[in-house]
Design a protein that fits this description.
alpha/beta, D-Maltodextrin-Binding Protein, domain 2, Alpha-Beta Plaits, 3 domains, 6-stranded mixed sheet, 5-stranded mixed sheet, about 25% helix, flat, binds adenosine-5'-triphosphate, ATP phosphoribosyltransferase activity, magnesium
Length: about 300
């Protein structure tokens, strides 16, 4: 597929765990995108960008081969694909532009609950079902153990029950699926998040300009997501204590309150979690009207 039309082509998952968050990220960046008809290539109306909707497992290859300029994919899929390509001598180079704040999970080895697990050496000689044989084998090599891998692209968790494998190595977020299948997590071998990746070759011309505009917007959206705007009224005499209590306090704004000499308004952006406990402590110091608001966009 020709990728020289000056439009930045970005591969995202068509449907699955990363698709809603990826689409939402671009919408929050102000991209007018209509994905309703689920075509392979979706034109962005207000920027020279095309979104390519594909399977997650195809994204690393599309970016590494230069078919797409950028992609959003889980570190797990990316690294498995890169290891696979290194084995076959295909091009496996890419740049990780930034880590995104969604798609968090871990790749773990799990065994039937009744197995008496005594540490990594207990895995020696086992047969493990997985979608990620390269990452699993790398773990084995690092620990000097050998196991047999059985590659499955789905329903990995049922493999031990049907006698296909002794255990599994699969993605876990809450652990509920493992539990429902009578399995226990014994080793976390990799932790993953979604990432924005680009090909090895630097972008040039129109595409570079579009990317330079898009990236700060993406970073602004991600930063805003984890930040909160905090407002409160505080007793003037307790201002120093109030400020030390406020999480991640970068120079708060202190404003006078009309008709009140003893109290001030304090505003700040916090990049840390604002706990109920902190609000209660602020209240105990005499603060009131404590508001914690989400931030939509940030720049600079
Ligand atoms: P494809 O689009 O090729 O079918 P997939 O089968 O890996 O890919 P999903 O199950 O939607 O599709 O997972 C996409 C990605 O979401 C995973 O590769 C991983 O990075 C991330 N993820 C986050 N939490 C989980 C989880 N609990 N189980 C599986 N994947 C998870």
């Amino acid at each position: 597929m020709n990728n020289d039309n000056g439009r930045l082509r970005i591969a995202i998952q068509k449907s699955g765990r990363l698709s809603d968050s990826s689409q939402d990220l671009f919408k929050r960046c102000g991209l007018k995108v209509s994905l309703a008809d689920r075509k392979l290539l979706s034109h962005v109306g207000n920027m020279p960008i095309d979104l390519m909707l594909v399977r997650s497992s195809d994204i690393p290859g599309l970016v590494m081969d230069g078919v797409c300029d950028l992609g959003i994919v889980g570190d797990n899929t990316l690294e498995e694909h890169a290891l696979q390509r290194q084995l076959t001598g295909e091009t496996s180079a890419y740049n990780k532009v930034c880590s995104l704040k969604f798609g968090g999970c871990r790749l773990s080895i799990a065994l039937p609950e009744e197995v008496d697990y005594q540490g990594v050496q207990s895995l020696d000689g086992l047969r493990l079902a997985t979608t990620y044989p390269r990452l699993l084998n790398r773990f084995g090599e690092q620990h000097g153990i050998r196991f047999e891998t059985c590659k499955l692209n789905g329903s990995v968790e049922v493999a031990p029950r049907v006698g296909l494998a002794d255990g599994i190595c699969d993605l876990v977020s809450t652990g509920a699926t493992l539990e429902a299948n009578g399995l226990k997590e014994v080793e976390v071998i990799y932790t993953s998040k979604a990432a924005l990746i680009s090909g090895e070759k630097p972008l040039s011309g129109e595409k570079a300009k579009t990317f330079d505009k898009l990236l700060p917007r993406m970073q602004g959206v991600l930063k805003a997501k984890e930040s909160k705007y905090i407002m409160l009224h505080a007793p003037k005499g307790k201002l120093a204590e109030v400020i030390t209590l406020m999480p991640g306090s970068e120079t708060p704004t202190v404003l006078p309150l009309a008709g009140r000499d003893d109290r001030v308004a304090v505003h700040m952006v916090s990049t840390e979690t604002f706990f109920w406990e902190t609000m209660e402590q602020l209240k105990d110091l005499g603060c009131n009207s404590i508001l914690v608001l989400p931030i939509e966009k940030m720049m600079g």
